[in-house]
Amino acid sequence: MKFGETFTEYLHGEEEWFLEKCRYVEYKKLKKVLKKCKTCNSKRSDDEHMISSATSLSDSCQYQSCPWCDQMFFEELMKEASDIAGCFKSRVRHLLHLHVATGMQRYMMRLRRCFTDEKQALIHEGHILIQYITMNAIAIRKILKKYDKVHGSENGKNFKLKMRAERIELLHSPWLIGNFKNSFGCVSCENINEDQPVMKLMLPNSIELEFDLVCAICLETVFNPYALKCGHIFCKACACSSASVMIFQGVKAAPQCSKCPICREVGVYAEAVHMIELHLLLKIRSKEYWKERMMGERSEMVKQSKMFWNEQTMQMIGF
């Protein structure tokens, strides 16, 4: 079965109710745009061949750029990818809020479990979200590859790099990287207690993503991890230290001009994602390490808090 048929089947399958509320890639529509462009290019190529048989594919400018196709194609695809990323982010945030609920909300959820299987409902919604982001990511990859094949260019490949630069490439979303625990059956952590801990995400269609769990600042397994908007993962304490803010103030208190310690991207702290599920997973898998790091972070927080309030007091009394 071709991917177009598989994608259509997915759109009209069991998750159709979910997709009615979310944006998805208009794969068929974009494919028709390319098909029309391919026909025009074919006719144009035949005419030019009659004029000069020496004209090569690489010398033919219409293959390198197509204004009509670019306008119809890339603008639409960029908007779709942005909307899909936004939808995925809001859904995962809501799901995590329910999963790690505290206080009265936690009590109410436990009460509801007497009447409904809340855990299975959360797992099912997690699977739906994984399928949603994966199928749309594959659709974008396929259609960009087809674009380059039709035009004999690398514009599709360059567009993918642009998506990554603008932080809307779906499979590099921080919300995908660390917010799905083993309960969804798609995450595995290897070598947690060794020098090179790795997290692997097994997605539908045999897609495997691998992420290094070593903090680039302290060179240890990430503790209380945060993923910056650019996708790089750090310990909370390390990320705060790099941005010159105190741990108790939090990662998002970093100045707008703060840069990622790895890629040097500016403005990536404001939308940092607390990787709660990964944090809980590491707590279970490596209890002794987790306790050691927790005590160290708390000690540093107390130390920083004393310094902060001492400075505030000195300012208030005029010293």
Automatic annotation (TrEMBL):
Its EC number is 2.3.2.27. The keyword Chloroplast does not apply. One of its GO terms (molecular function) is zinc ion binding. Pfam families: zf-RING_UBOX (PF13445). The keyword Nucleotidyltransferase does not apply. Residues 1-161 form the SPX domain. Residues 215-264 form the RING-type domain. It catalyses: S-ubiquitinyl-[E2 ubiquitin-conjugating enzyme]-L-cysteine + [acceptor protein]-L-lysine = [E2 ubiquitin-conjugating enzyme]-L-cysteine + N(6)-ubiquitinyl-[acceptor protein]-L-lysine. Keywords: Metal-binding, Transferase, Ubl conjugation pathway, Zinc, Zinc-finger. Pathway: Protein modification; protein ubiquitination. PROSITE patterns: SPX, ZF_RING_1, ZF_RING_2. It comes from the Eukaryota. InterPro entries: BAH1, SPX_dom, Znf-RING_euk, Znf_RING, Znf_RING/FYVE/PHD, Znf_RING_CS. This is RING-type E3 ubiquitin transferase. The lineage of its organism: Eukaryota, Viridiplantae, Streptophyta, Embryophyta, Tracheophyta.
